[in-house]
Design goal:
With 651 residues, the chain is an alpha+beta fold. It contains 20 helices and 10 strands. The two termini are 31 Å apart.
Length: 651
């Protein structure tokens, strides 16, 4: 048999085990080529708003290469160990290590570069679709058209050729350092199967759960006023990160075995077939894969968290823009206002003008701030003395407060959490000569002036008109740095809003202080966050596929190693369906435990700071988690199908 026949036979024999690897490689190459193609497309700058789209995709493609390279190198390590006996047999029949290396290199060359060519074609074919998705999420109304980019082709070939060289170096080093005897033992030593739990492992198991719980608890207190300086906040974040990651490692190293061992002892050691096939196997397998599972769980949590936060911002864009600019347009200067109104009249666009007098008043808020989370500089360095905008209830239809009451409106979720603002208590307005005590009666989200009047998120105070008059005659001129009248314009017929927005741009009103367009703010936020969500989504999908493949490959290893056990069980009379039920439980734990832990990590991470990104939490986060869970479950299903084939062939 010549070397070509040997290569062909090996490829034919092993291709059924490589199909998921080939799919992941084709997907990775295709996605990378699409990203690089888009990176060189001039339309990307239009699609990205204030963020340079090409630069953003360039940075993300580097991360993509990192994820793919780690996956390919790790997958190759699994496959080369699986073929260790085959390599040992080659040596026994007289093949030199150099000749064996050339055989493996030729196999990998055909498989790798064949997949790469398919991936490049698939990537170019999908580039227009990906660009359409990007235009959709960023709100760009442009036809998606792409041309083949030679630069993208060369960059893709060079990058993946470099990864191939690294794989060959790993294979050469593996073959070179292994003796024939060690090759036959390589598979059997990959898993560390320990029969009895030590006291140390019990302590590790308890410590793992405790550290994760500690990280979760501190995350709930992060912006609740318990940390009074940036240094304390930074140290708290380090504590959360360290305790959760190390706790996750200990969880896989000891906690899983500790919990399952407790279940086994509660049954007196008498386990059903399903429990033997699931619990007993996982108890000893997970601890040997603790580091790998920790990395997969941590990066999964990071991907879910980042995607949830970016989707929260995207999902909340409309409400955020309405909270920042309560009317369709806000115009500060009288000349600009007159020009804009005249343009609207000339175009026969009916509008409604809203005018509110705004006072900037020094206010002592010490009684309504529970604790300054990270101290905000107030007047003269006093965090309890702040300058906040004040409106008369007379200027707001349907709102009425008594002369002793004040209502806070329009504050952002971030400020409320950051400063722990209470919904009741005493505040004190300080004019130039007079101090006026008021009773805070509540907080609401309704905004009545643009965010530029309220220092980017501080609440607006609504007072009785008599109090407003007293404040207006006792103003401190040193704090009246903003226009004292807010002018808002609402377009009556919303179908003409785009036309009015074009007039706003044509008059060059945009960009000047106090001149804001609600629609432009919405478009900008959706454009920027849409690009981030697009990039994070595809990177997260790549990691999901690669990590799912790694877990699947590990299950393939375990399945082949446990094949003799299934043969014995089949000879004892157990049917395929009996064994398959136990396997289904096993895969539920193998894929479910890392998924649940990752989802839990991401939930507490998002919960601790979601209010900085938008106004909606649950719907965006639940959508992301359900989508991730659904895609992740596919690999568990594929593992069950693989085991079904192993069980069927075991007898």
């Amino acid at each position: 048999m010549n070397i070509n026949d040997l290569i062909y036979r090996n490829l034919k024999k092993n291709i059924k085990n490589y199909y998921l690897y080939v799919f992941a490689l084709i997907f990775s190459v295709g996605l990378y080529f699409s990203f690089v193609t888009l990176q060189y497309d001039p339309a990307m700058d239009e699609a990205a708003g204030s963020i340079k789209g090409g630069a953003a995709l360039g940075a993300s493609s580097v991360l993509l290469v990192g994820i793919v390279a780690i996956f390919l190198l790790y997958a190759n390590t699994i496959f080369i160990k699986r073929r260790s006996k085959e390599i040992g047999l080659f040596q026994l029949i007289g093949l030199t290590k150099g000749r064996i290396f050339r055989i493996l290199s030729a196999e990998n060359l055909i498989l790798y570069f064949g997949s790469m060519v398919i991936g490049i074609f698939a990537g170019f074919a999908a580039s227009r679709l990906i660009l359409m998705i990007l235009f959709k999420v960023t709100g760009v109304d442009t036809e998606a058209s792409l041309s083949f980019r030679v630069e993208a082709l060369l960059q893709t070939v060079i990058v993946f050729a470099a990864i191939y060289v690294l794989i060959m170096i790993m294979n050469y080093a593996f073959i070179k350092r292994q003796s024939i005897l060690s090759l036959f033992r390589a598979v059997s030593t990959t898993e560390n199967q320990i029969k009895k739990m030590s006291i140390l492992e019990v302590l590790m198991g308890i410590a793992g759960i405790g550290l994760i719980g500690l990280g979760y608890y501190v995350s709930t207190k992060l912006f609740g006023g318990d940390f009074t300086s940036m240094n304390e906040l930074f140290l708290a974040m380090i504590l959360i990160l360290g305790s959760v990651i190390f706790g996750t490692y200990l969880f896989y190293k000891g906690s899983v075995s500790f919990i399952f061992n407790a279940i086994r002892k509660s049954k007196g050691g008498y386990l059903s077939l399903n429990e033997v096939l699931s619990l007993s196997s996982i108890m000893f397998r997970m601890k040997s894969n603790a580091l790998l599972l920790t990395i997969i769980t941590t990066v999964s949590a990071l991907a879910i968290g980042l995607l949830s936060l970016s989707y929260i911002s995207y999902y909340s864009a409309e409400k955020s823009s309405e909270q920042s600019v309560p009317n369709h347009f806000a115009v500060a200067k009288p000349d600009d206002l007159a020009a804009f109104k005249q343009a609207l009249i000339e175009e026969d666009i009916e509008f409604k003008e809203i005018e509110r007098e705004v006072l900037q008043i020094e206010t002592d808020v010490s009684q309504v701030i529970g604790s300054i989370g990270v101290q905000v500089e107030g007047k003269n360095g006093d965090p309890n003395l702040m300058t906040i905008p004040v409106l008369s209830d007379k200027s707001i239809p349907g709102l009425d407060v008594t002369p002793e009451e004040v209502l806070f409106t329009g504050s952002s979720d971030a400020i409320e959490q950051f400063m722990a603002i209470q919904d009741s208590g005493q505040i004190e307005f300080r004019g130039q000569t007079e101090r006026i005590q008021q009773e805070l009666i509540g907080l609401n989200k309704d905004a009545y002036i643009s965010y530029q009047y309220s220092s980017g998120g501080l609440p607006t105070a609504i007072v009785d008109d008599t109090i407003f008059e007293r404040l207006s005659v006792d103003l401190n001129p040193d704090v009246q740095e903003l226009p004292q009248v807010y002018h808002g314009i609402d377009i009556v017929d919303v179908t003409k809003l785009d036309q009015a927005n074009m007039l706003f741009k044509q008059l060059d009103l945009e960009g000047q202080f106090g001149n804001l367009s609600q629609r432009e703010m919405l478009i900008t936020q959706k454009s920027n966050m849409g690009l981030i969500m697009f990039i994070v989504g595809f990177l997260g999908l790549t990691f999901l596929i690669t990590s799912g493949c790694i877990l699947y490959f590990k299950q393939m290893d375990e399945g082949e190693e446990e094949r003799p056990n299934y043969t014995i069980l089949r000879k004892l009379g157990f049917t395929q369906s009996n064994l398959l039920r136990g396997i289904q439980f096993k895969q539920l734990f193998n894929f479910g435990i890392p998924l649940i832990v990752g989802l839990s990590h991401s939930y507490f991470a998002v919960q601790s700071g979601w209010f900085f990104f938008g106004t909606e939490l649950w719907m965006p986060m639940v959508i992301v988690m359900l989508l991730y869970t659904g895609l992740y479950s596919i690999f568990g299903l594929l593992s069950v199908l693989f085991y079904k084939r192993v069980i069927k062939e075991s007898l």
